[in-house]
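A reminder from the course coordinator: this example appears on the midterm review sheet, so study it carefully.

Given structure:
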């Protein structure tokens, strides 16, 4: 499970870097700050997924979740959302060196 969480963290971190690079290239080209929101980035890549996710969340979950939580999240910068998610996944997979030292070794001698 730790491997899956670390891999997801790495993928999200790479996505954040890619989104940041794209935003910086657009900012240099436009001579002003251009920041892509998560909603625009997802809608540009997968237009049907955002609409289907909205229908699914509103039909199976509370309207509060889509209207207040997810709608707010979709207006945030894409690189910041990906960075925060990468940090959350990394912290979920983190094992401190002290705790790791207390675990029994899996090596078998002989």
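Designed residues:
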């Amino acid at each position: 499970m730790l491997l899956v969480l670390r891999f997801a963290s790495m993928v999200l971190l790479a996505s954040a870097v890619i989104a940041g690079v794209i935003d910086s290239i657009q900012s240099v080209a436009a001579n002003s700050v251009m920041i892509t929101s998560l909603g625009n980035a997802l809608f540009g890549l997968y237009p049907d997924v955002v609409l289907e996710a909205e229908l699914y969340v509103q039909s199976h979950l509370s309207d509060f979740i889509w209207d207040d939580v997810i709608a707010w999240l979709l207006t945030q910068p894409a690189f910041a959302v990906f960075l925060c998610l990468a940090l959350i996944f990394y912290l979920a997979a983190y094992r401190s060196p002290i705790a790791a030292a207390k675990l029994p070794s899996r090596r078998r001698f002989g």
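The chain has a mean pLDDT of 88. The two ends are 29 Å apart (CA to CA).
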